[in-house]
Amino acid sequence: KIKLVKDVMHEDYTISQLKGDAKKLGIVGFVYEILSWSKQYERAVLAACSDWIKAAIVPDFETLVSLAQVVRNKKLPKLKIIPLNAIPEFQMNMPKMSGLLGVLSDYVQYDSEYRPIAKFLFGNIMLTQTGNDAHELSKAGYKAVSINGEFFESKTNAVTIDINSKISKLTKIISQSSTVDGLLQTITLLRNHVQKKKSNLKKIEQKLRYLMKQLQVSETELGNTSHSNSTLQSQIHAKVNLSNNFSQRISELRVQEERLSPKIIQISSSIESLEQRIKLVKENYSYAEQVTISNKI
Questions:
Q1: pLDDT given at position 296
Q2: What are the coiled-coil residue ranges (predicted)?
Q3: For residues 221 and 224, what is the distance between their CA atoms, to the nearest angstrom?
C-alpha cells in the first residue's frame, strides 16, 4: 500500500517540499512560473509539454546533480530538472503548407534569459489551425499541435537535431525519466563528464603554461635580435657615410688632378729642358768651369 501511494504521488508534492528552499537548492524556478501564454493557445501548449510543465529549472548540471541527490535523500517521488546551460541552440526549417501558424515557441511569453527553455520545450513543434494540418506535418517528419490541443509526434526522421555531445545524450535520458530514480541514473555519467572536463582543463592549463614559457623565450630572442639589428643598422649607416666621404674625396682629387695636369706637363717639359742644358754644360765644360758657372748662377 505504501508503495502504491508513493507511485501515484506526483510533481505537486515534490514541488511543495522544495519550494521553501528553492533559492538555497539553486532552483531558478519552475516551467509553469517562467513561461506564460494567451488563453487562445493554452490547450496547444499544455498538450505539447504536459510532461514538462512542472519541471524545475537550474543554472547548470552541477546544480542538477546536487538537487537530484537532495530529492533522493528526501525520498521524493518525481521531478524533472532542466539545466539552462545545457540546452543546445538549433534552428528549425519551416515547412511550406497552408494551415501552419508557425513555431509554438513564438506564441509563448518569457523573459529573455529563459528563451532557451521556450526553445527546448516548443522550438521544434509546429502550431497549426486544425488537427488535420498537424497530422499532415507529422507525416512529413515534424512534431505538430493544433490550436485545439491535438498533438502529433513526428512519424519520420526527416528532421533531426544532432549535437553529438554527452550533454545532449544526458538531456535525452532526463527527458525520458519519469521518476527520480530514473533521473539519478545519469549522475554517474554526469560525474564522469565533469571529471573528463576537469582533466581536459588541466591539460589545457599545462599547455598554456608551456606556451607562455615559449612566448617569453621568443620575446627575449626577439629583443636580442632587435638590439643586434639596431647595432648592425648603426654600423651600416656609419660605413655608408664613410664610403660617401671617400667617394667625395676621390671626386675632389680627380678634379684637382685634372686642374693640375697641364701644369704638371709644363713643369715636366721645363725639367726636361734643364736636363738637356745640364748635359750640354757637362759635355762642354770641365768640372772646375762647371763649379765656377754654378757659383755665378
A1: 66
A2: 187-221, 264-291
A3: 5
Q: In Å, how far from its chain's centre is CA 61?
A: 23
* DSSP 8-state class, residue 87: P
Helix H or strand E segment including 218? helix 187-284
CB contact burial 238-254 (16+ within 10 A = b; e otherwise): eeeeeeeeeeeeeeeee
Closest CA to 150 of 169, 133, 168: 133
Domain map (residue ranges) of the chain: 2-185, 204-296
First to last CA, the chain: 161
pLDDT at position 290, please? 67
pLDDT range class, residue 185, cuts 50, 70, 90: low
Q: Which three cell numbers stand for residue 211?
A: 606556451
pLDDT at 12 over 90: no
Count Cβ atoms within 10 A of the Cβ of residue 233 and give its class: 0-12 exposed, 13-18 middle, 19 or more buried. exposed
Q: What is the pLDDT of residue 6?
A: 42
Find the helix packing angle between 61-73 and 187-284, rounded to 10°: 160
Average pLDDT over residues 80-101: 84
Mean pLDDT of 128-142: 88
- CATH T-level assignment (fold) for domain 2-185: Alpha-Beta Plaits (3.30.70)
**How many beta carbons lie within 10 A of that of residue 30, not counting itself?**
20
How far apart, in whole angstroms, are the C-alpha atoms of residue 70 and residue 88? 26
